[in-house]
Amino acid sequence: MKIIFKDYKLLSTNEHKRLLEIRNLEHIRENSLEKSIIGLESHLKWLFNLKDSLYFAVFMDDEIYGGFSLNALKSNSSWGVFFRQDTNVLLLSICVYKFLEFAFSKVQTLNSIVKISNKNSLTFTKNFGFKEVEKTPSEVKFSQNIQEWQEFRTKKFIKKVDDMAKSYEIKFKVKND
Amino acid sequence: MTKKIQEIIIACLDEICENYETQANSKANLDTKIFANDGILDSLSLVALISELEERLENELDIQVTLADEKAMSAKNSPFKDVQSLSLYIKEII
Questions:
Q1: How far away is chain A from the Cα of B30, in angstroms, using its nearest Cα?
Q2: Which residues in chain B have their CB less than 8 angstroms from residue A120's CB?
């Protein structure tokens, strides 16, 4: 199986539509910081003005399953993720691991903000080595730096994820501006 | 054999719950939901469980299995629902 992380800026109109269908699913909007339904026109306008950030749609054998964001590459970088509920959990862990590996090749520290109501994402973020740095009644901010990530990657279960990832063809397709 | 497999699964689950972030509130037992609906593990701690289980099954029962199987992970009737379904699945594939 091929897993492709394709830069939003390389997507066709039809692929943008398919991506938005996933992004606008109720379970994803519920857990997003921006809850509203995003239309194609406003999405393309936002993408046209996007700077200092990378967004990827994740294709598994030509089908889109979700997306990743890597914001503010220059400072105070953050990441985000959304996936369809029918995504194979094994592949989900592999995708997050490979994305974080990619992200830490670009930035020194990564932050993420997770809603307190999103319990699965809270445990998932912590299990990927992120530490809680701030908390409000509704959100938790997590952070991890590159040294912590390198140490985290040596853990036995992460090596298992790394081994499993080797049986897939995984590529990042990034638009060169 | 089934009982021994179940004991190993429960021991692995307790170990994972001690070392990872999970939704578990108490020690694991035969009825513990592992993954998906009301399951105590997220997808990454499930990988940790699989890794631990494969190792213990080999060390304690001399059984070599690959539980991180793509089909099992995507199956509608996933064997990772609870302890009983997982023990049945392991018994089937050994």
A1: 22
A2: 42
Question: Which value, to the nearest 10 degrees, does the dihedral of the CA atoms of residues A35, A132, A122, A60 take?
Answer: 80
Which of A157, A71, A33, A73 has its CA nearest to residue B43? A157
Dist CA A170 CA A100 (whole Å): 13
Q: What is the pLDDT of residues A20-65, one digit of tens each?
A: 999 999 999 988 888 899 999 999 999 999 999 999 999 999 999 9
Cβ–Cβ contact B14 with A under 8 A: no
Q: Is A90 on the interface with B (CB under 8 A)?
A: yes
Amino acid present at A42:
S
β-pair partners for A139? A115
User: Taking CB atoms and an 8 Å cutoff, what residues of chain B touch A127?
Assistant: 20-21, 42, 44-45, 48
Complex ipTM above 0.90? no
Phi, psi of B21, rounded to the nearest 5 degrees: -75, 125
Distances, alpha carbon A101 to alpha carbons A70, A155, A172, in Å:
12, 14, 11
In Å, how far are A101, A108, A128, A131, A152 from A149, measured between CA atoms?
A: 9, 10, 9, 11, 5
Nearest CA in chain B to A97: B44
> Within an 8 Å CB–CB cutoff, is residue B70 touching chain A?
yes
**Spatial CA neighbour of B68 closest among A156, A152, A168, A160:** A160
HEC string for B23-41 = CCCCCCCCCCECCCCCCCC
* A160 vs B contacts (CB less than 8 Å): 47-48, 50-51, 68
Q: What is the pTM of this model?
A: 0.90
The DSSP bridge pattern shows strands A54-60 and A139-145 to be: unpaired
